[in-house]
Design a protein that fits this description.
Blueprint (H helix, E strand, L loop, with lengths): L2 H8 L2 H28 L7 H12 L12 H37 L11 E4 L5 H11 L7 E5 L3 H10 L5 E5 L5 H6 L7 E4 L8 H18 L4 E6 L5 H6 L4 E4 L4 H10 L3 H9 L7 E5 L9 H12 L2 E10 L13 H12 L8 E7 L12 E5 L1
Parallel strand pairs: 1-2, 1-4, 2-3, 4-5, 5-6
Antiparallel strand pairs: 7-10, 8-9, 8-10
Helix pairs in contact: 2-3, 2-4
Length: 380
């Protein structure tokens, strides 16, 4: 809730009535005291402004004493103003405190809207979720991300997680992330990326993947331009999540077989890969923006630039290619015409059947020409 929304909630109907009563009391009391004091005490009550000043000072029990009534009528009005003022000020204080306390409680329970921009929404929860959040902050020390968790974890567990990341911008929304309401409270319209984790604290792997698929369909149907990264447990579900238009799909334990086999055939390979992918490693894989002056230049020139200027080894290029959404217009068979259309669209930097697609080109030829919006894959 932003400042203006907070102000709006404070000045709700009840608060408005109290302030209206205070304004009415001020006007009536100032008019009456001026009537009684204006003749016998004109030095202090020379006009309506002096009477309003005295009324407000009396209502809020400031008691400057610069203006005081001397007539019986003026003092009776003073007694009434003091009594009414104490009641009204107490009601105002209690109402505002109640609204702010309620807002704080709702925030802690994950029921209040959060106004972040360019943030990351993490939906679901498993035993890797905290490590993922921690890795975000390790990799982005210069510009830490803003993260909103959307799940239905028990309150004590959520409080423990928020305490751990109390120095970072990590917030919580309670709700079912397959529905729009919790996602809207998490500010999905302004979000940068939505990460869908298998909700293993509530469901088994099969149901968790179904929830991930349902959430992907829901998000992409309502917010097709939002980047969705889906984490699934069963490799057989990868094709279904991709058809739901997830931008990236990560399969649990997808590379375990490679690590096991490579360590036998090429001892130490798993250690090499671990160092390349570790957030704590001094040398890891990363992507960096290629300066615009290298557009139309060769990959060899780009590799030389990163090596000489930044001591980085360029391994390839990466690009996100936007789809024009024409996949449904092509026939289901593999006709020469369809293949020709698809090939021409890809040559133009377009893809079919997905909202966008990440194209990775590792170890390209030295003569490969750098295109617009491509990034370099480097070893830092």
């Amino acid at each position: 809730m932003n400042f203006f929304e907070t102000l709006k909630s404070i000045f709700s109907r009840t608060i408005f009535r109290i302030f209206l009563s205070l304004a009415l009391l001020t006007v009536v009391a100032a008019t009456l005291v001026l009537h009684f004091e204006g003749v016998e005490n004109p030095g202090e009550y020379s006009g309506l402004w002096d009477s309003v000043w005295w009324t407000l000072v009396t209502v809020f029990t400031v008691g400057y004493g610069d203006i005081r009534p001397i007539t019986t009528g003026g003092r009776v009005i003073g007694i009434l103003v003091m009594t009414s003022g104490v009641i009204l000020v107490s009601l105002i204080t209690a109402s505002i405190s109640s609204i702010l306390v309620t807002k704080k409680i709702r925030e802690e329970q994950g029921l209040e809207s959060i106004n972040f921009e360019d943030h990351i929404i993490i939906c679901g929860w498993n035993n890797r979720a905290e490590s993922i959040i921690e890795t975000f902050f390790q990799l982005a020390k210069q510009k830490p991300p803003k993260i909103i968790m959307v799940n239905e974890l028990p309150e004590d567990e959520i409080n423990s997680i928020l305490d751990r990341f109390s120095k970072n911008k990590v917030k919580f929304i309670r709700g079912d992330y397959t529905r729009n309401a919790p996602l809207e409270r998490a500010g999905i319209k302004e979000a940068k990326t939505i990460i869908l984790l298998p909700n293993l604290f509530q469901y088994d792997a099969l149901v968790a993947d179904e929830k991930t698929l349902l959430a992907t369909l829901n998000i992409k149907s309502s917010y097709p331009k939002k980047k969705v990264i889906a984490f699934i447990m069963n490799p057989e579900n990868e094709i279904h999540v991709k058809r739901a238009r997830a931008d990236e799909v990560i399969v649990s334990d997808q590379f375990v077989d490679y690590f096991v086999a490579s360590d036998v055939l090429e001892p130490g390979m798993s250690n090499i890969v671990s160092k390349l992918l570790s957030a704590k490693s001094d040398h890891r894989l990363s992507t960096v923006v290629i300066p615009s002056r290298f557009r139309g230049k060769t990959f060899a020139e780009v590799a030389q630039f990163f090596k000489n200027q930044h001591h980085m080894v360029a391994l390839g290029v990466l690009a996100e290619v936007e789809s024009i959404g024409m996949g449904d217009f092509l026939s289901s068979d593999s006709s020469h015409l369809d293949a020709f259309i698809e090939r021409k669209l890809k040559e133009a930097g377009k893809t079919l059947g997905e909202e966008n697609k990440t194209i990775v080109n590792l170890n390209p030829e030295d003569e490969y020409i750098i295109r617009e919006n491509e990034k370099a894959i480097v070893l830092v």
